[in-house]
């Protein structure tokens, strides 16, 4: 069994450079690779393109990279919780490519599976389809979307083992799983790193073949974007 374990986040991000394209997993603030994001801030990489469902909030998640003006282009589907993102987008400081959420997930999964492109009806007749090939299938129009190309994919899992096998929890699975193997190098940080053989094979969401580096994460905040509680009677 190939050992994918690295000692720390510094070792896991070896090779990260300015101008690269990164995939970052998570759904809202759920399941985001907090350790990898903090290290990217520390490394002060510049002019990067980030592919993520969201842009974090002003002082957390990808919002930290935005504050430091490290992101040149943001490809995402939901950015409504980040004031700094809005400011940079409206001022022209940040290049933005908004993508339908399902299309974003499929562009990751297509890259993971080795498919160069796929057709989807989402976005036909809107700005999303401008400049793209369209085609009629059985009387319905579809847009050709190309798979993403990224240098690194940073994902966060609940559990993992030294072989890179991963188990996600809840909505953290929405984008993290699709991003594994969708870049040249996939780096997984986990809440609990267990010995090979301890994970139930039937509960593994992503096999280790899709992961190149894995490390034990630490100090997770696990913030909640919008807390809704029931009123007391």
Number of H/I helices = 6
Poorly predicted runs of 5 or more residues: none
Order of helices and strands: HEHEHEHEHEEEEEHEE
Shape designation: globular
Summing up helix and strand content along with how strands pair, one would put the structural category as alpha/beta
The separation of the N and C termini measures 57 Å
Question: Would you mind describing this structure in some detail?
Answer:
The protein is an alpha/beta fold and 233 residues long. The protein has six helices and eleven strands. Strands 1, 2, 3, 4, 8, 9, 10 and 11 form an eight-stranded mixed beta sheet that branches. Helix 4 links the parallel strand 3 and strand 4. Helix 5 runs parallel beside helix 6. The model has no long low-confidence stretch (mean pLDDT 94).
Short descriptors:
CoA_trans_fam_I; CoA transferase subunit A; NagB/RpiA_transferase-like; globular; transferase; 233 residues; 8-stranded mixed beta sheet; 3-stranded antiparallel beta sheet; transferase activity; alpha/beta; 21% helix
Topology:
Layout: H1 9-12, E1 21-24, H2 34-43, E2 48-51, H3 63-67, E3 71-76, H4 83-91, E4 95-98, H5 101-113, E5 117-120, E6 134-137, E7 140-146, E8 152-161, E9 166-167, H6 173-179, E10 185-194, E11 213-216
Parallel strand pairs: 1-2, 1-8, 2-3, 3-4, 8-10, 10-11
Antiparallel strand pairs: 5-7, 6-7, 8-9
Brief description of this entry?
By secondary structure, the protein is of the alpha/beta class. The chain has helices at 9-12, 34-43, 63-67, 83-91, 101-113, 173-179; strands at residues 21-24, 48-51, 71-76, 95-98, 117-120, 134-137, 140-146, 152-161, 166-167, 185-194, 213-216. Helix 2 links the parallel strand 1 and strand 2.
